[in-house]
Amino acid sequence: MTFRAVGGRKCGFLALLIGRTVAMASDVVLQANELKSKANEYFASGDYTDAIAYYSKAIELHETAVFFANRSFAYLRTEMFGAALEDASKAISLDENYIKGYYRRASANMAMGHYDKALRDFETVVRKYPNSKDARQKYDECFKRQRLRAFAKAIASEEKPSPLENFDPSSICIEPSYAGPHLEQKDDGTYTVTQKFMVELLETFKAQKKLHRRYAVVMVKQFYDILRKLPSLVEIDVPDGAKFTVCGDVHGQFYDLVNIFELNGLPSTENPYVCIIDSFTLTTCPLFR
């Protein structure tokens, strides 16, 4: 087929063909926008499933960053975060200047716990719209979550088994020259703290002498084992007529503690104390009983 002999008609045919193509393309865009509008209506009413369906139909006709970002938002509302992330990334690939694409991708990554990736996209949004309260709030919330995770990870990695868990008292020898109080041993070899021992311990401390390190570590380990098994908050039933003596922190002043005991009696089941202690000193030992 040749248009050599009808040159004017050739240009007319091409113009007609181009015109029809443009018209068809315009019709496709119009249909796609109508589908998007319908999807928006479903989204506004909370029908995210139908909204996704109509956004998908619009995308089949005409792929735009707006359509993918809108469907990403609908996926977010239905907690389909992987699909939301994929659509948001597609929106950015179609138009790297479309900020909503970054916002949707950041939201999807944040929902999945990918805080580092989410922060990068939120930073892009905040740079573009520094006065956006919503963008700033999202950025701050994501940053907070990232810091909390990093803190929790640091705590978890630093927590190691205590040397007390495998402590063997026999590994610390008691010298023949030691003249201080001795913990009593049960038939199974375990040590027990008695009222007699505590009275002797107080007298030892008052005389400026020391408790042997074996017994000190044994007492610390027993205290450690007790605390590890207790919840952070312990509820105690106090019988009618019973009393608790509440002591503030004595700040390491041993003789102040001794004076309290002389005035109010030694700690016991019948004479319990509630003490506030924020440091471990020799004043702590008499309270282990």
From TrEMBL:
Enzyme class, spelled out: hydrolase
Transmembrane stretches, start-end: none
Keywords, alphabetical: Hydrolase, Manganese, Metal-binding, Repeat, Signal, TPR repeat
Pfam families for this protein: PPP5 (PF08321), TPR_1 (PF00515), TPR_2 (PF07719)
Flavoprotein among keywords: no
Domain of life: Eukaryota
Gene3D superfamilies for the chain: 3.60.21.10, Tetratricopeptide repeat domain
SUPFAM superfamilies recorded: Metallo-dependent phosphatases, TPR-like
Signal peptide region: 1-25
Record's keyword annotation contains Transferase: no
Domain PPP, first and last residues per copy: 139-235
Cofactor: Mn(2+)
EC number: 3.1.3.16
Residues in TPR repeats: 32-65, 99-132
Protein's name in the database: protein-serine/threonine phosphatase
Annotated organism of origin: Schistocephalus solidus
Gene name of the encoded protein: PPP5
